[in-house]
Amino acid sequence: MKNLRYSWSPFLKYGNKLDIEENSVVYHQGSEGKGFFYLSKGGIKITLLSQEGVERTVNYVPEGMLFGEHGVKNEPYLTSATSSSSSEIYFFSDEALFMICEEHPEAACIFTNSLIYKFRILAEIISFLNSPIEQQMAHFLLKLVSENGNFSIDQSSFARYIGTSRITVNKILNKWKSQQWIQISTRTIDILDIKSLKEIRDSGAIDISNLDVLMLSL
What we know:
Layout: E1 16-20, E2 25-27, E3 36-41, E4 44-49, E5 55-61, E6 66-67, E7 80-83, E8 87-92, H1 94-103, H2 106-128, H3 133-148, H4 155-162, H5 166-178, E9 182-184, E10 189-191, H6 194-201, H7 209-212
Helix pairs in contact: 3-6, 4-5
């Protein structure tokens, strides 16, 4: 993923720059795709609504990454995207994508790898659905920090990301805090002991190494 960040920035001149306020909906799950987006500044939250009507946060888009790639060629968006803070984004239509790839052939590879990465995220979530909550929390907290660096997220938002209750998240976070693995403030969860969280993440029978094969070329 790190090799993908900002790799689309040379093509921003082909996009339409948009400044959006916090809690603005960029696109709705199931709506007809009009194109895709690039996050220049701010934050975008990606959510998925199940057939049972349960909404789960599946990704927080790091700055310098594409999102909504599945909305090209009028295909319906598979997720919803909402700004988690005031943000600067760029919109790219199908025509813009065609022009970019025609003038810059390497862009097709960047776009494809970004799309593969998004499917990897969904596969990753599915692979952890039946694992213990503590293992899921360790994995996704490490993932957020790895992708975004110092990342602001409150416990309620983190609970929606994991797909569990705030009470459960609070109990485990306080346990980790007492063990001096993390530090908790109003809006952030800072990791103090990465090794211990990795041990929790790697406990159990889940092997996600096969998912990493998708990322070897990214």
